[in-house]
Structures are given as C-alpha cells and as structure tokens.
Specification:
This protein is an alpha+beta fold. The chain has 5 helices and 13 strands. Helix content is 26%, strand content 33%. Helix 1 packs antiparallel against helix 2.
Length: 204
C-alpha cells in the first residue's frame, strides 16, 4: 500500500469519526482546465479534536502523493478552525480528476457526455431540473457536447454550466449545484465516503 493512502486513512479517521460525516458537507468544483477544488466544512466541537494534527496529517499525505507522482499534483490551500462557529474548513486543490480519484480512492470524471459514454453506462432513472423523469438517451442525442460529472462520492458538486438532468441519486440544489446522496438504505462501512453505483450530473 502506498504511503499516501495510509496517511489518507488517518485524515478520514479524523474527519469521519472526529467531526461527524464530513463527506456529506464536502463540495467539489472542477474548473475549465480540469483542476479540482474540494472544500470540507464540518463541526469540530470537542476539546480532544486536534487541528494541528489534522493539518499535519494532510500535509504528509500530500507530500507522499506528490513524491509518488514526481510533480506537485495536490496541495492543501487552507486548513482553518473557526472557534466561534466551532467548525473546521479544509480546502484542497488537485491538478486533475484523476489525481482526485487516486488521492481519495473514489471515482470522479468530468467531460463531454459522449466521452463519458465510452466508460459509463448511464443506467437508472434521470430527472430534469423540474424533477420530472427524462429520457437520458434523448438528452445524449440532443446534447452530444453537453458535459457530465460522474462520481461515487456523496458530495455537493458545483458545475460550470446549467444543469440539464441528474441521476435519481442526485438532488439539484440550484442552477449549477447538485448533491449526491448516499441513500437511506445504504448500510456499509463505506457509506460515508462512497455510494452504491454512480451519480451523474449533466450540464451545459
């Protein structure tokens, strides 16, 4: 097992057991150059929580990953504790979706809906912005250059364009924001960091 994955386990332990289900409050944004910004904001309201330990663990994981890649692919932009709100804010930046996937051991794809079709099957129901079921095959035909974010992580996703439709395990929060939901019936040890199957967010 690579060193950065071992260190990552330490980060997840601190966030998921120390702060609660942090993954539910994570937001992922992918810019036009493919860079990924991840922000986790969660409660940090126990006297035994150690902000410095969290920051140190993240820094070690980042250093180990970048050494493995022989390049600066991941960076920690902010690890800040708000004493008044008793919240921790951890902001990370990744050079690409593939770096995000490798570092966090989850799926994250962002590209055209045509490109996605080469790897992902788009199974299940899809809903439009009004909550009505839509024919994803028709959407793919009508908007071949539309983009789609695919993930198996319960996160909020901010898109660069207007959301056209989403898979049924996603809740649209706004014109350019959606939430991937873990599902009420998911009961496994990975439920806080991954979901069953994939979530799709189609936008243009």
């Amino acid at each position: 097992m690579k060193k950065y994955i071992v260190l990552l386990a330490g980060i997840l332990f601190i966030l998921l057991t120390g702060c609660g289900a942090a993954a539910d409050n994570s937001t992922v944004t992918i810019d036009k150059k493919g860079r990924v910004t991840s922000v986790i904001v969660d409660s940090f309201d126990r006297s035994y929580y150690d902000t410095e330990k969290l920051e140190s663990t993240v820094e070690k994981a980042v250093a180990a990953y970048n050494k493995e890649q022989d390049a600066e692919k991941v960076s920690m932009k902010q690890c800040r504790y708000d004493k008044k709100q008793q919240e921790i804010r951890l902001e990370m930046e990744y050079a690409s979706c593939s770096d995000y996937e490798a570092f966090n051991q989850v799926t994250l794809f962002d590209g055209t809906i045509t490109q996605a079709g080469e790897t992902y099957d788009f199974e299940g129901k899809f809903l439009d912005a009004g909550g009505n079921e839509t024919d994803i095959a028709a959407v793919r035909t009508q908007y071949p250059e539309a983009r789609v974010t695919v993930t198996n992580e319960p996160v909020d996703v901010v898109t660069r364009g207007k959301i056209l439709c989403v898979s049924e395990n996603v809740k649209i929060l706004g014109e350019k924001k959606a939430r991937v939901e873990a599902g009420e019936n998911q009961d496994n040890e990975n439920a806080q960091t991954s979901i069953a199957g994939y979530a799709y967010i189609v936008y243009q």
